[in-house]
Each structure stands twice: as structure tokens, then as C-alpha cells.
Amino acid sequence: MALRFIGIDPNTDEQNCPRVWVDEEAGEFVFQGWKAGDDLEEQVRSTGPLPDHEGVVRIPVRMVHILREACDAAERLDV
Q: Tens digit of pLDDT for each residue in 6-61?
């Protein structure tokens, strides 16, 4: 797996923080974020199933520029 680090929450403590990567081999985004919690997962399940092997994380809106950079990097991949 070739993970390309894109960015970290700009309001971070550098230890426990949302981060974004692009997996250049798989052509996928990788997110580290805060666990969603039961209430949010319940809302997600109202639109469809949430299999045991999947999860929901929160990423703050202040990271939108990092998400855009990740999208730009992904568009440049030859997958």
C-alpha cells in the first residue's frame, strides 16, 4: 500500500486528530477521524445498512481544503 499523507486537522494537538491520506495503489481515500457514536450511526443506518466491517467517522469542516487536496491527488492517479 502506498499511502500519500495529505493533511491533518489544522486545530490539532498533533496526537489525537483527524488525518487524510490517499492510497495511491488502491485508488482510495483513507480517513482518521472521531468515532461517530451510536446516535450518528443510527442516522446513517436509516439510509442503508452499516456492515460490521465498515465504520463511520467524523471529519471537521475546517479540513475541507485538505479534502479538496486529497480529491485533486486522487484525480491525478492512473487507476
A: 999 999 887 778 999 999 999 999 999 999 999 999 999 999 999 999 999 999 99
Q: Using DSSP, state whether 47 is helix, strand or coil.
A: coil
Total residue length of the chain: 79
What does the pLDDT look like over 49-68, one tens digit per residue? 999 999 999 999 999 999 99
Rounded CA-CA distance 26/68 in Å is 19
Neighbour count for residue 29 (Cβ, 10 Å): 15
Cell of 70: 486529497
Task: Copy the grid coordinates of residue 26.
Answer: 488502491
pTM for this model (two decimals)? 0.83
Cell output for 34 = 472521531
Structural domain count of the chain: 1
Domain, as residue range, for 10? 3-47+56-75
